[in-house]
Every structure is written in structure tokens, then in C-alpha cells.
Specification:
This protein has about 450 residues and is an alpha+beta fold. It has two domains: about 5-165, Chloramphenicol Acetyltransferase (2-Layer Sandwich); about 190-440, Nonribosomal peptide synthetase, condensation domain (Chloramphenicol Acetyltransferase), CATH 3.30.559.30. The chain is about 40% helix and about 20% strand. It is built from 13 helices and 15 strands. The chain has a six-stranded mixed β-sheet, sandwiched between helices. A hairpin with a 7-residue loop joins strand 3 and strand 4 (about 70-75). It holds the Pfam family WS_DGAT_cat. It catalyses: an acyl-CoA + a 1,2-diacyl-sn-glycerol = a triacyl-sn-glycerol + CoA. It is an enzyme of class 2 (transferase). Pathway: Glycerolipid metabolism; triacylglycerol biosynthesis; Lipid metabolism.
Amino acid sequence: MSSELLAPLDLAFWHLESAEHPMHLGALAVFDARPGCDGERIADLLAERAAAVRRLRMRVRGVWLPVGGAAWVAHQEFDVRRHVGLVRLPGDDFAAEAARVAAELMESPLERGLPPWRMYVLTGRDDGRTGAPFAVLVKLHHALADGMRAVAIGAGILDQAAEPRTRRGRPAPPKSWLPGPREVAGFARERVGEVARAVGIGASVVRAGRLELGTASALAADSSGTRRLATAVLEEDEVRRVRRASGGTANDVLLAVVAGGLRRWLLERGSPIPDARPRALVPVSRRRPGTPPGSGNKLSAYLLGLPVDEPDPAARLAAVRTAMERNKAAGPGRGAGAVALLADRLPPLAHRFGAPLAGGAARLLFDVLVTSVPLPRTGLSLGGCPLREVYPMAPLARGQSLAVALSTYGGRVHVGLVADGKAVPDVDRLARALGEELAELVNL
């Protein structure tokens, strides 16, 4: 049987998962309603196109070598209908209902033994004129996709990719992986080299780690197993205007918006501003142009102390810009954010048995994930219905109550806030605070 070994970081994500802490990424894509774009038709279209994506037909299976490893193998009994669902939403407020249902669907882990993904068509009421509004919720296990791979997989089901794909020949099957004596000896040599490289990265992670848990109590919570989703939309032109006035990058501006939004939210809910700045883990893609989508997660990260203690928005932005410039000068192989690189250097058996410890140590490294997901600029559609908004969703680390994901599409930055439903029931207020913070930066 043809198979493909999971890359080390993919294996780490696979073993980090628990019932309370699912390790899947998500996206809620909202489309403009059009006559004829009914839910059943869209679900049929999704099923047809998803079945043609080879990566979506593969499941994870354990292997003998390397010890503790796993491989992607074709699922011989693959049934795409087990992965594509249709949910009809009640009520007249489609946006609110879609966010509520999407959050509930994000709570449960993906079923192991099957290809680790699900898609749901969420459809509202048809007003008889423009058709029923609909959205597509995509769940992909982090072992299956990092942000850029998720975009590549998601794009494969859209109209713009479907036609070219049908003209190409069948994709080449994955290489068969049956270890022989040379492969066994090669694994031994690789393990020795990787351990040596891991020592330097591990020392950097330990130096940057904290001996005590972070003090941002509003961002920390034991998992309740529930999720809430809130969304925000920021105008890209306004982000650029702030960047032109202040210098730095658009990403610096967005990180400052997150810091200011958190400060506003903490003050409004009566939570204390922490003495120590909460640490944001800011993922950095190591995927080079032309790297095939199936080549494993390619991630490192920077650590950023979010200046929520600074009352002046301009000073917050300056602090973020300075810290990010320092991060980039040091490179993504330094600091606690390099833990993803360390995972790439560890043998599979270490991931299998060390994942529970690693998951529990997340709060020693950072307090909140803030990630940006790159998207095509505009012009995507499904079944002839234009894509209007797309909100990325990141998984929650153990002991943390909030994850922030951003994507830019159609001249707007779409923000997806995933929160523990019990710890952060007011995540909608945080979403509004982000818009208020950007408005203040624009008016400086």
C-alpha cells in the first residue's frame, strides 16, 4: 500500500490532541446568496470536488519504522458523504446563527481512523428573491494542514481551481514507503544528527520559557470543552494608512490592534491589567515558494509581549514594531517560539509519549496565539456564488482561553476569535474592541 510518513511537526500535532483540546484548524467562509445556490446543491458540489483532492482521501496509520511514527495512507473505504454535512439554520439573523453553530461544530475532535477533515454547509432561509444565504465551515486537522496548506486545500474546492484540475492528469500517488536495511541505517544516522541540532534549539526554548505560569488570568482557563466564535472586519485601507504614518509593517499594525483591543476588553470587563505583558505566539511560515502542499507543516514562531499595560495607542504600536524588528533580527530559530523547530528535530517516539507534557507546558511559553493566514486577494466563488468573507479559526492550546486568527480578502481583514465558551462568554465584546482600536490609530 502506498504511504507517506507524517513529518515530525505533523506527528506532534497528531499526538497533542485530546478530547478537550482538539487540534483542528477551521475557517468560516461566507458567500453571497444567488438564486439556485441552495444548500443541497452546494453540499453536492463540495462532496464532488473534495473527493477529487487526493490529500482529503488519506488517513493516519501507525508504522513499524520509525518507532512511534505514523504515515498517511489512502483510506480504502473512503466515503466523502461522511465528511460533508448540511445544516439548516433557524432564525433570521444568519450571521449570528452561523457563528454560534460553527463554534459548536468546532468543539468536537475529528474522528480518528478516517481522513481528518469535515466540511459543513450552513444555510439560512430563502427569501424567494436572492436565494438562501450560506456559509461553509471547514475543519482540517493541524496534522493535515498548516495555514498555507489549508488555503491550498480549500482553494481546491472553489470554482477557480475546479476546472483546471479536471484538465490535468491524475496526481501522482505518494511514494511507497517500505524500509530496507539502508533506510533503517539512514534513520539511525538522521536521529543522531537531529538530536545534536535539537540541543541548540532546545536551549533557546528553555532560556525563553517562564518558570511560572503567565499572569494574564483572563487569557488562561481550564478547558470547559465549549467554544465561542466571534468575528470582526477591519478595513485594509485603514491598516495601510496607519502603517504609512507609523512605519513598520501591516502585520505590526494588526498586532498592535490586538494588543489595544485586549486592553479595552480587560478594562471593560473589570479584569486587572497584568503586571507582565501577555505573550503572543506569532507563527512564521517556513514554506518556501514552490514547496508542495503535501510536504508537512513548515512553521516556527516569534514571541511578542503584547503591550496591554501601555495606555497610549501610538506607544503600543511603537512597542510592537520595535519588538517585532528585534524578533526578525534574531530569526525564528531563537526563543520559545522555536518550539515548532524543536519538534522537527525529535524522534517520533518522543512525540508519542511527550505530547501530554508538551501540551501542558504551553502556558509556560505563551498566553495567546495570534496568527495570520494568507489568502488570494479577491475573486473566489463556489457554485457561481461569490466569496464575501472568510474567518480563519485557530485551535486553543491547553490552559488558554483565546486564539486570534486573521486573513485579508477583498480589501478587508477578517478576524476569527475562538474562545473557551465558559471562560470568555463576552468574546463578542473583544471583537468590537478591535475595530475601536483601529479607529483610534487611524485618528492619531
